[in-house]
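In this supplementary section we document a worked example of the pipeline. Step one takes a protein sequence of length 153 as its only input; no multiple sequence alignment statistics are reported here. Step two produces a three-dimensional model, which step three serialises into structure tokens for compact storage. The input and output of this example are shown verbatim.
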Amino acid sequence: MSDEKQSTEMPAEGGDERPLVVLARDGDEETGIASLSDLGREVVTLDPGLLDGEAFSRLGDAVAVIVPWDLGSQAGLDVVEALRTDERTQHTPIVMSSAAPTRAAVRMALKAGATGFIFQPLDPDDVRRHLAASSAAGSEPEGQGSGEAAGDG
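The serialised model returned by step three reads:
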């Protein structure tokens, strides 16, 4: 796909060569995608408006997919639900992200099938923790991490 951007192609930690996919609109700097070059793995950004059959196949091969809560024209929660119902991505770890998540948002994300919730801007150490937890849990929802400390709302 022509709208994909790849940042690094260094070997991934632990020998897992699969890319991390971050859904983001073009020019969306608030998510902190640039900081993920420190992860030591390929990071692919994909415009959520381009989620077609080919994209779903690629997402199924990802080590994880980070889905922002607000994707502009569509809700990130809808994307999580779509990923969970598609057989190509139903077992792919999905981490939702938001600059100011509420406990209600975290609960909705986990109920929809997210394996975790993380703050924006994205921090490489937080992403590493979520990847490790997803790997250790076999992609079962972890319900822990950065988002659990969010305020009520």
